[in-house]
Amino acid sequence: MAGWVYVLENKSMPGLVKVGYTKHSPKSRAGQLYQTGIPTPFTIYYAGLFENPRLIEGKAHKTLKHCRVSRGREFFKCRPSEAVSAIEAHAKPASTKSEISKSEWANFYKAKKAVEKNCRAEISVIEVERKYLIEKLKDKKENIYLNAKKLTGGVTYGHFAGWFLPSILICDAFENEGFAFFIIWLLGSLTTSNHQINKIKKSNNYNNLVTNRLTSIKLEEVELNSTIDSQIALTKDKANQKIQTLKNNLNQP
């Protein structure tokens, strides 16, 4: 019964190839070998269709016995091309997938470009989201500064205005009313406004509150950028995995 004699590679086993046979799809066989103890999947370097695959496999093993890693195991320490030569030295296959046609390469690159395009589009969406969220954090900062300015400014100007009427009434008792008015109003306003501002700062830990809020926003920004960067890295990894799968499927009978 016809079957496939194959040469498999695995990037976790550099310098080694597996030479075996199967009456089913070499792709399925490679998938079966990808088990828990194997960190990366096998890829098909060569697969030839023969009338008596078991016989051809046995002869190839004998040819490669000098580089066999262990008896009872189908792994050999040799170049993949050397393993192919050992197989085809005994018979020519009815069909082979050792070479990739130009059309297959063209289809691969077309699919690869599509994956890369989708990846760039996804990253663009993520970057737009980053920009939007960063702008929101900037707005929060501006609001903190504006509220701080209003609070301190409101207290100062309010108490300056509050001393205006009392200054007029007191100045009626002095001959130089203008000068007396100015001195009384200025001293009273400064004393009251400074007292109130210091009171607010001390009672509410105003400066610490502003600093803590700004620090919190800075931490939010750092965490946001870290999360976005992770999303972008994950998107790139997924795209690379898809491209690798496409490449692996190039030579899959």
Outline the fold blueprint:
Blueprint: E1 3-9, E2 17-22, H1 26-33, E3 43-50, H2 53-63, E4 75-76, H3 80-88, E5 95-96, H4 102-162, H5 164-171, H6 177-204, H7 206-248
Antiparallel strand pairs: 1-2, 1-3, 2-4, 3-5
Attribute tags:
66% helix; 253 residues; 7 helices; 5-stranded antiparallel beta sheet
What does this protein structure show overall?
This protein is an alpha+beta fold. It folds into 2 domains: 3-93; 107-251, no CATH class. 66% of the residues lie in helices and 10% in strands. A hairpin with a 7-residue loop joins strand 1 and strand 2 (17-22). Helix 2 (53-63) packs across helix 3 (80-88), helix 4 (102-162) crosses helix 6 (177-204) and helix 4 runs antiparallel to helix 7. Mean pLDDT is 78; it is low at 153-160.
Main pleated-sheet profile: 5 strands, antiparallel
Question: What is the element string, with H for helices and E for strands?
Answer: EEHEHEHEHHHH
The coarse silhouette is: elongated
Q: Kindly, what is the distance between the CA atoms of the first and last residues, rounded to a whole number of angstroms? A: 18 Å
Give the integer mean of the pLDDT values. Answer: 78
Q: In DSSP terms, counting alpha (H) and pi (I) runs of 4 or more, how many helices?
A: 7
Helix amount: 55-70%
Q: Would you tell me the structural class of the helices and strands?
A: alpha+beta
The percent range for strand residues is 5-15%
In the sheet with the most strands, the strands line up as 4-2-1-3-5
Gyration radius, rounded: 40 Å
Write down how many β-strands occur, each being a DSSP E stretch of 2 or more residues. 5
Uncertain ranges: 153-160
Task: Supply the number of structural domains.
Answer: 2
